[in-house]
Design brief:
With 137 residues, the protein is mainly alpha-helical. It contains four helices and two strands; from the N terminus they run H-H-H-E-E-H. It has a domain of 89 residues. A hairpin with a 2-residue loop joins strand 1 and strand 2.
Length: 137
Amino acid sequence: MAELLEKLQSVGVSAAELGALVVALAVNWAPVIAWIGWWLFLVDWRSVWPAVLRGGWAALALLAAGGALVWNASNPGPVEIVGWVGEGYLGKLWVSLAVAFSAVFCGLIQRLVLPGPPRFWAEEAAPAAVQPQHGQH
């Protein structure tokens, strides 16, 4: 019986350690999860795609380049992301362009893979016509 309790305690400790690792992983990756969730589920790409295809991609690229300039001016050292090290402005430019591309890629996934827009994007019903009330002048 003591051996069984010892094993259960060991499983409980392992489960707690696993839970702590999952929470730490979720906290570390929370900005990435939020970014992807925003662009994949909260942006209505049916209305964004026409703007991107009419030239909005250029504005997006310029914003990424400007963001990389500001980032490089405020923090001139190398950037390290997931083991990749980028030097100077070009490294930050690649990261900024990758972030912008990830948003557009989420739109592509939404368009090609997801079955349809989430319910809160449903077309609103047209308001009922206001009926004139007789007797009011």
